[in-house]
Amino acid sequence: MNRKHYVASVAAAALLSSLGASALWATEESQDALKAEAKITLEAATQTALAKVPGGTIKSSELEQEHGILIWSFDIAKPKTRNITEVQVDAKTGAVVSETTETPKQQRAEAAKEKAEHK
Questions:
Q1: Cα(98)–Cα(112) distance, integer angstroms
Q2: Which of 12, 77, 103, 119 has its Cα between 20 and 30 A from that of 59?
């Protein structure tokens, strides 16, 4: 690679790094705004979600707007199965909004869809 291409590559990498930091900052800022709207704490929502899946272990949690509702979304692993139970708790009322079970195949499809949306 000649010097001109090297300098262009370094500049492009610096720009991408800067954009990544900006995107991370924007995500943190939007999470702070969502948390300010939530009336139900993560801890309270966690207890509600785990009550729906006895013996379950939380694999991930997220505060998000979905279909116009602010929710705490939990992926919960159940013993003796590779399925994941997704429990969504209304972040303003504490009510369970939905409870669905996802097979490993469905989990992979959802992960691929989310990855494509974030590109």
A1: 22
A2: 119
